[in-house]
Design a protein that fits this description.
Blueprint: H1 2-32, H2 43-72, H3 75-98, H4 104-131
Helix pairs in contact: 1-2, 1-3, 2-3, 2-4, 3-4
């Protein structure tokens, strides 16, 4: 049961990350004078907004791959990859907001984690299907 709780914790933390970025975007609207529904304005706000949007895009990919990997390829490795994903998204967002050129490390780590999850999930599912 503790393992299932750990999987759930990673998923909740990933969603909370995106929520925090959303709060930063909302606060940034006021700070940088970007009234809703505008999607452009102060460059720092635009970077905050883009980091949030990209994190939403990546979350949609991460969550199903993470679940399928954990339950078909390995929960412990999946949890490690989940932790790396959480770190990658922080590195990405902080880098992007400071200077868009600094987002590369977080973007690469995110892609590497998701590629590992995708390949592992696919192999895990196929192996389980063949065995049954």
């Amino acid at each position: 049961m503790a393992i299932l709780s750990a999987v759930s914790l990673v998923m909740v933390l990933a969603v909370i990350e995106v929520m925090v970025l959303g709060i930063l975007v909302a606060r940034g609207r006021e700070k940088y004078g970007v009234p809703a529904p505008a999607t452009s304005g102060h460059p720092t706000w635009e970077r905050l907004n883009r980091a949030h949007q990209n994190s939403l895009e990546q979350l949609i990919v991460f969550l199903p791959l993470f679940l399928v990997y954990c339950f078909n390829a390995g929960i412990q490795t999946g949890l490690l990859l989940g932790a790396l994903y959480l770190i990658a998204r922080i590195v990405y967002a902080v880098g992007y907001v400071r200077d868009p050129a600094r987002r590369a490390a977080g973007a690469f780590l995110t892609f590497a984690v998701q590629a590992w999850l995708a390949l592992g999930a696919l192999i895990g599912v196929v192996v389980k299907m063949v065995r049954t």
